[in-house]
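haha ok so turns out i had the wrong file open the whole time. this is the CORRECT one, sorry everyone. sequence first:
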Amino acid sequence: MAPPAKAGSGLKVLLVLVGVLALAGVAAVGGLWYLGHRVKEAVVEKAKAYGVDLPTDSPSRSSAAPVRLRKACDLLSNQEAASLLAQPIERSEQTSDGCSYYGPAGLSAKLAQEQASSTFKNAQTPGSNVGGMDVANAVDQLAGSMGAAQGTTGSGGEAPLLMLMVGLDGKSQMAALSASNALFSGIFNAAEGKKGGSVGAEITGLGDRALRMPKLGLNVLKGEVFIRIIPGPVPDADTKTVSVARAVLAKL
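then structure:
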């Protein structure tokens, strides 16, 4: 007699698909906001060149000293990253967006495979509380390590174990994240039959406000400064990214 578990299996597949789509959507919203912000800045600058002052939604800083930020890689050394992640960090790369931290060859792929295997196994266990977002995150990490091996993502065949981005205009960034959270929470709650749940998670006692979002990592607002910390497939990533945030905040 065939076991009547097809419905449960089908639900897990649905959760995976919805979770992947939701993660992609959250990232798309975040990416589109960055693009829109850059376009707005370009338009304002062009208008100024022609002697036209456009209204802005940002407070004037003319009466205050400009906020200066150190580069992301200078705010968190390789040694500090290794200590906080409990993983070896061999190198870091500063980019226009922030800093990426890499472990020894093969470590990211190994961790991603272990994470995916554990998540999939738990998802098949009766009564498991592993949801679509958990599965989607494991799939995303595994895909990231495979993409790095093929040279389409990461650097030198490796996916980063941590990405750190620091910038200004933090209040606008956090407002965009809040809108994304509300939108995708509604979509995902409907898929999982939940009410009142949130895709993002508010983290108390961290900066002025902190919000963890799938795909977009831990996002912290402190004054005008915005910090985004996206972990790779490291164990206990949620706890470790909070420690990273505290270390960075202490240097601002």
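The first helix runs from residue 6 to 49.
again sry for the mixup
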